[in-house]
Predict the structure.
Amino acid sequence: VSAQSNPKVLVIIPAYNEQGAIGSVVQELRETLPEMPVLVIDDCSEDATVDVARQAGARVLMLPHHLGLGGCVQAGYKLAFELGYDYVIRIDGDGQHDPKFIPRMLDTLIKSGSEMVIGSRFVESSGQTTHFARAIGIRFFRAVLRPILGRPVHDPTSGFVGVNRSALGVFSKSFPLEYPEIEALVVLQRRAFRFEEVPCTMRKRKAGKSTITPLKSLYYIFHVLLGVFVNILKYEGRRRRR
Amino acid sequence: MDRLLGLVTIASLCLVGLVLYYVRRAHIRVEYSVSWFLAAVALLALASSRGALERLSAALGIEYAPVALLLVIVFVFSLVLFRLSIIISNLKDSNIALAQRVAILEFQIHSLHEAQQTPAGR
């Protein structure tokens, strides 16, 4: 990593039809961390997400058609890598992630030397709860991931994530396209990369509603499980060591 | 059984004709028509040779030869569909990479224009 004393940091926000929340998310970021550039990656929204984000002061990377969350985040990682950023923090565009935790995540990334930091609701008992189905899903994936990662991960579905340049390089080339959070951990593990969890609290979304339905939850579990095992089996030449 | 074999022969010939028609009109690329031609030829060969079909069903331990024919049809078309899944997956990966590249280039062009319009540069 170059220039550790003054690293280049970018905040990316993947967004799809987030006109109701994206403006206040960007504004809050600019008030909390005025020196940090903000990039909204618009996944071909059908509403005024792009205009609202620009008015709030963000740069916008506009995808020509809808790619889904993974493709959207990866586009941001690719751009950040090409522009020479040392660290990238990803937050959601619905206002669930509080930017006041970003300095702590960044600090952990830099001091620990880990490739990835996850903003976790459950690493310390913060009293945070999530709805029943999601809580069961998180417990299930914790149990699945523990032997694979060789250590516990408390909040594997968190989208509040920071990565360093090494992880950026990897994710620019290989990033799960649907439901990326859990699979991304396995992608890193395959390269013997490390991650840390930073305790944080999450808020309710500022606008819009979750698109997750019971049927989609089942599809999610099946898809992610398959993705995890495919990533384990994937042959990408000799395993890289640090 | 003869009626079934006749039906499969006609269907195979129709498939060959259909694929040729679409290849000629450039609606199917030649490389993607190969799977369909091979499938049609395999079925045509099996349907026009009753002896071969009976030997195949005996080898598979199937008493009723038409069942072996149906099994072969399912297998051949599954192979074709599997090949198409691989092609679609590759196309999707290329499409995503292309869309990301277009977005990044557009972003950088926009940044250059902004930098040019700012008198003192950035």
Observations:
- The interface with chain A takes residues 96, 99-100, 102-104, 106-107 of chain B (CB under 8 Å).
- The longest helix of chain B spans residues 65-117.
- The helical segments of chain B are 2-24, 30-48, 50-60, 65-117.
- Chain B has a mean pLDDT of 88.
